[in-house]
Design a protein that fits this description.
Its main location: cytoplasm. This is ATP-dependent dethiobiotin synthetase BioD. The strands form three sheets. This protein has a six-stranded parallel beta sheet, with helices on both faces. Strands 3-6 form a two-stranded parallel ribbon. A two-stranded antiparallel sheet has the order 4-5. Helices cover 42% and strands 20% of the residues. It has nine helices and ten strands. It is globular. With 234 residues, the chain is an alpha/beta fold. The protein binds adenosine-5'-triphosphate, 7,8-diamino-nonanoic acid and magnesium ion. The site of adenosine-5'-triphosphate (ATP) has 17 residues, from helix 1 and strand 9.
Length: 234
């Protein structure tokens, strides 16, 4: 069996891609769907007890995956410095190779999982070289995309810019998630309505700020159900 993969992008770094991805993985598990989460390119990492460079996003995705896989399969390109990853890669003369990304995807799709969640880094137009973006690889791979909007002041501009570029890419967009980062934001309900009117894809779920356990469980199931329906239509 070959898994269905999809790519999680966000309106910016810290939009909540990992937060939403771990909810999605929990939701898949509660629906009885085996899923793995991967972070192909990670910048910002520490040496663990085994002497291995590890990134906290990749570790969270590993912990919430339904299939246990070695760290290097989930995060082949890992850099210590918390920066735009192509700078860290250039400093070490280790290119962010699209061939490595494609090989990782293939391997994960043959891991026995039904769904492979691939988290990006930063926003949609993350540079991976002088003239390529991670978005170009996603487009070349024909990966469906899920957009996480970090709902805070400034998100309208970030979301619409991202949407325009996603549309231009021709990528299939599964939908978007409203991830509330500033619950005290003025006109929060109006911002959500405005995003809903401007984004041409379905709102799959709204993730509250610091959701309670029961809120997490509910949103995880809703999100996972909607995503699985798009990826594995019956
Ligand atoms: N709904 C939320 N409620 C409370 N905290 C949140 C929420 N969403 C995200 N956060 C927190 O905000 C921070 C940034 O979120 P997260 O790490 O998921 O962003 P990201 O988009 O994955 O960033 P990166 O580009 O580094 O991968 C984290 O500390 C996370 O726990
Ligand atoms: C280090 C950080 N947490 C992310 N993983 C990488 C963010 C890269 C942003 C690049 C940019 O768009 O300027
Ligand atoms: Mg992340």
């Amino acid at each position: 069996m070959r898994a269905n993969s999809f790519f999680v992008t966000g309106t910016d770094t810290d939009a909540g891609k990992t937060f939403v991805s771990t909810l999605l993985l929990q939701g898949f598990q509660s629906l009885g769907i085996s899923a793995v989460g991967a972070k192909p390119i990670a910048a910002g990492a520490e040496i663990n007890e085994a002497g291995q460079l590890v990134n906290s996003d990749a570790l969270l995705l590993q912990r919430h995956s339904g299939i246990a896989l070695p760290y290097s399969q989930l995060n082949p390109l890992c850099f210590a410095k918390a920066c735009a990853p192509h700078f860290a890669a250039a400093e070490l003369q280790q290119p962010l190779s699209e061939a490595v990304l494609s090989a990782q995807r293939q391997q994960l799709e043959q891991s026995g999982a039904e769904i492979v969640l691939i988290e990006g880094a930063g926003g949609w137009l993350l540079p991976i070289s002088a003239d390529r973006y991670l978005a170009d690889w996603v487009q070349a791979e024909n990966l469906p995309v899920l957009l996480v909007v970090g709902v805070k002041l400034g998100c309208l501009n970030h979301a619409v810019l991202t949407a325009r570029e996603l549309t231009r890419s021709g990528c299939q967009v599964i939908g978007w998630v409203a991830n509330i980062l500033q619950p005290e934001m003025l006109f929060l309900a109006q911002n959500l309505a405005d995003l809903t009117a401007r984004l041409p894809w379905p709102l799959l779920a709204t993730v509250p700020f610091q959701p309670s356990v029961s809120e997490q469980q509910a949103v995880a199931r809703t999100l996972a159900h909607a995503t699985a329906q798009q990826l594995m239509p019956t």
